Structure formats: structure tokens, C-alpha cells
Amino acid sequence: MRESQTRIGLLVPSVNIVVEPETSLMLPEGVTAHAARVSLESSEELAGVNDLVRNAENAVQQLLPARVEVIGFACTTASFYAGVKGEQRLRARLEEVGGVPVVTAIGAVVAAFAWLGARRVAMATPYSARVNALAEAFLNASGIDVVSSAGLGIHDTADIGFVDEETVLRIARQAVRVGVDALFLSCTNLPTVSVIAALEAETSVPVVSSNQALAWAMLRRIGVAGRTNRFGTLMAMESKVVRAAAEHAGPQ
User: Which residue range is the domain that position 17 belongs to?
Assistant: First the structure.
């Protein structure tokens, strides 16, 4: 019997102050998010990613008593830095440890682009050029062409959570180009959900952010529609599909 309350789990880097509140905003009634914070010794750009991957297994075990139905690995950089095969190995290992489905941030983004039919994207990030190049390489290897990109050049990941809305809008506008299929706002510690609707209205293309895509992918794995207001085309499309499927199935 399915419990009335559905729980999702988040593996959150210890420096991240954004993904938990943004995820909670997007969850429908009856779904709650429960986080395990993953420690890292350094917040300097790529220095902490190995810490996150190494410590994630213990964090998964912390989530298991909460009986979560799906787990989101809530670090975009740590899920793309080792390439497509590295992301697959990470996901498989965490699923082996936890016994529940695991979605990584970058895996969710790639799935979101596939769902939207987006092959040519613009990318805005808080990263340095070095990290942007790794993100582009991952997306290219996944069949997605990064047409243009813009980054803030932030090297200390702990600073990313304090970026303001106007700065996010500025780099998004710098990145977007005529002819792209979507705009990608990368990093789970970058505040994005408050600007998605405005950017979609301004650019006339779907906007996919790390946190939005991760919430969407986790909810999708458990067959639950997200909230449609303010959170963009991705959430709105999925909500329509889930509702239609429920109506087609009729009373159970």
C-alpha cells in the first residue's frame, strides 16, 4: 500500500544553501524533501568534487531510515566532471548502496532537454571557463550542442549561493542566442527558480535549471506532477502529462 506522504531524498553539498529551499517550493502537496549533507574539505572549484563523490555513499545511508522513494544527487559539477561514464558509475553505485532510484543533477538536465526536444542550448553558469568547458564536454557527449555560454568566474563554490537575482538574469541574457532551443542555468547552489518564468517570457525559449530539472526528474520517477506556476515549461508539460495519464486510468 502506498503511503499518503511521499518522500524524496537529496544529497546536498555542505556548502549548498539553495537546493533545499528551491526544491521545497516546487514540490506538490503530499511530497516532502529530506536532505543529507555531504561534507567536502574544500569549496575551491573542482577541489571538493572527489570529496562529494567519496562521501555520498555514507549520506545515502543516512537517508534510508526516512524511506525515501528516490534520491537526487544535488551537485551539478560533481555529476559531470568525470564525463558521461563517470556519471553512470556514480549513479549505479549510489543505487546499489541505497536500493532506490538515484537521479544526478546533470542526468536530470540531459533528460529535461530530451523531453523538451532541445538539441541546441545556451548555458549560463557561476563557473570559471575551466568548469564551463567540462560542462560543455558532458553535454556535447550527450548529444547536446552548447551554442553559447557565459560564466561568473566564481572559484569558491560557497559564494555561489549568495549570487543575487539580477546577476543571474545578467549572465542568462549574455548567454542566450537567437536560434537556441533552450537556456540552461547550471549549478544547484545558484538561485534560479525565481527567474525562470521571467526569462522564458523574455527569451521565448524553455529555461532549464539544475534544481528545476532535478526536482522534475525525481517527481517523474515516482509519477507525481510538480507545481505548474512559476517554474517553467518543463514542469508545466510534465504536469499535463501526469494529469492526463491519471484521468485516463480512472478510479483505482
Answer: 6-107+212-249
